[in-house]
């Protein structure tokens, strides 16, 4: 079984891992709180929520299976070498469980809060249905041959695919609305921090082991970080560069509405009645 060559690097690995999980755990709450405060999910794309739930469920299956199953761990080492370290840490499992649960809470908010005219798209429904069918078929195929490593690799591929597409509906929606109101930028900033520290964690492990096997041995985790960084930079660009004036304009209008009743005179009232 592989072991660490450097205690400082091992400690750094654990710190970075938990920092990534902590950032990714916290990133769910700004949107959750924003929805609760406004009692509205207008501005939050429903496809993003459903695709995220599908993604995190697939990610949970992969992480939990590889972390807890001795059989799958043995199959992993048979494929990548008996000196290879398992590329899933306890923080990965903890994050996956939390992500599924908190996304379910956000999905519940979609049902109970003001949502305007937005509905789940047919494309999203088709994608999630296809993912479910593929998962069932792959379980049936892998069962007779005990191809469990292959099976969880399929789930890992699913979560990479879902990560690549889940942000697209929200980004397109922001472009269409020409604002990011209702979409929490703090969610994105914490998400970005999590991706960067997650990637750094894998780098530390590579330095200690003198190999990049953990990058291609867990290609899902590698691509996950890169995809998240790419889309988060798009959202940051939308929020701070493309549509800051829209955001400030909305704040100004809100302030004007709050002060208007205090500024109304009797003359204005009579004029309003004539209109």
From TrEMBL:
UniProt KW Transmembrane helix keyword = yes
Q: Name one GO cellular component term.
A: lysosomal membrane
Report which superkingdom the organism of origin falls in.
Answer: Eukaryota
PANTHER family named in the record: CYSTINOSIN
Its ancestry begins with:
Eukaryota, Viridiplantae, Streptophyta, Embryophyta, Tracheophyta
This one is known as Cystinosin homolog
Q: Which organism is it from?
A: Cinnamomum micranthum f. kanehirae
Q: Where in the cell is it found?
A: Lysosome membrane
Record keywords, A-Z: Lysosome, Membrane, Repeat, Transmembrane, Transmembrane helix, Transport
User: Transmembrane as a keyword?
Assistant: yes
